Amino acid sequence: MGPFSLQKWQASLSNFPMLLEGLGVTLIVAATGLALAMIIGVVFGVLSSSHWKVARFFARVYVEFFQNTPLLIQVFLLYNALPLIAPKAVIPVTVVGVMGVGFYHGAYIAEVVRAGIQSIHQGQIEAALSQGFSYIQAMRHVIIPQALRVVLPPLTNQAVVLIKNTSILAVIAGGDLMYRGDSYAGSVGNYGPTYVVVGLLYFALCYPLAVLTKKLEDRSEVHGNA
Amino acid sequence: MKKKMHVLVIAFALVLSVTALVGCGAKKATTTGANGVSSDIQKIKDAGVLKVGVKVDVPNFGYKDPKTNKIDGFEIDLARQLAKRILGDESKIQLEPVTAKTRGPLLDNGQLDVVIATFTIKPERLLQWNFSDSYYTDQVGILVKKDSGITGLKDLDGKKVGVAQGATTKDAIEAEIAAQKLSIKPNYLEFATYPEINAALESGRIDAFSVDKSILTGYLSSDKVILAEGFAPQQYGIATKKGNDGITKECNTMLKEMTANGEMTTLLKKWNLK
Predict the structure, then answer these.
(1) Interval B222-235: pLDDT, tens
(2) How many CA atoms lie within 13 A of B65 on its CB side?
(3) pTM for the complete prediction?
């Protein structure tokens, strides 16, 4: 009997509700994680393109740390090391997941935001400031609306990668889609159909976003670079 | 035009999965050649080496000593015996580390000839793989921190129990709870490797670490204790790909002979097993 026999497909489909439960966890962690990553990304992106040296320094440290260490290690630290340092601070595993992908992709989004802001000509901010805008106002009303068009395609791309990276929860028993799949695949050996179904569910989540990325890219090419 | 593109991409993704479905679904039965050697054994003879999946993190069974970098243990000695019988030379083995999760797929895709890796014989598993007769019987045990106050299965209500992915432990604990008519409900958390479960126990992420007792002994430390209670005898067997009946027969003959001539007792004594 091969790993993809009909019998195994039937057995695996009976486990489908379990996978859907995992899909729910994946969706929640991905949505919350993305929100966190956006907040972190915008804050550090703006900081690293500011004129304030100390802010630029801290933004750099943050971005380099999270971009240049594996997500797996960051998640293990939050999951296992933190409770050893502070036994009272046991963060629930879904929150570890949200923080993990949030911090990690926050660093990447910060770079996207910084590049977006820097793509707007220096003269724009100077003009805004000379018109009496404060730095924050200039950012909000002049720079960010223009930068947004540039950064949207890479941002949706980050969302796709973030969704897939939530599968890191599988290694810390996070109950997400990958974990449920692993668990079922391992227990009775129906790994063939299980991983195909799990893969297709991730595909269903990510493909629409990938299409959106492509659309946004096309649009920014047509109207961009005025 | 664009819509057509999406349809194409999605269709292609589906085709890929279906190809996997059909391509790997093919089954090959064992045949016996003219010389009386079954085709699965002949394949190993042709390769000139026996590829064995073993544990590297279970002291006394299959353990890679970090000092010498050598894998050794009771199950490794069994693998050597098997190589001696099939290939006439006990050194012609290639040891591949496996975990509870990887050993099944590695057999199915032909990367391994046999798995001797604390692999429990279970009815569901007999549908997927061939198993030899049992060569060792172990029990499921529970490892806890001494200061946890847990003294037995009855204390596990609502506690987090770390188990290994692809292992039988969860079913075994549930069966024991039912057998003892306890009204408790532990939460099970599955991890890929034993060190990960141990790390979770040490960091307080889980309250108990439950796998086979032989495996737990490797993770004992001064602040941890294995509960006296043990349950659900687990019989370990040598697994091969479904349909590799020649190899399974060879394993059974080997185990029978080793038991009869006392080699098995000697080997168990060598590795401090009972």
Answers:
(1) 999 999 888 888 89
(2) 6
(3) 0.79
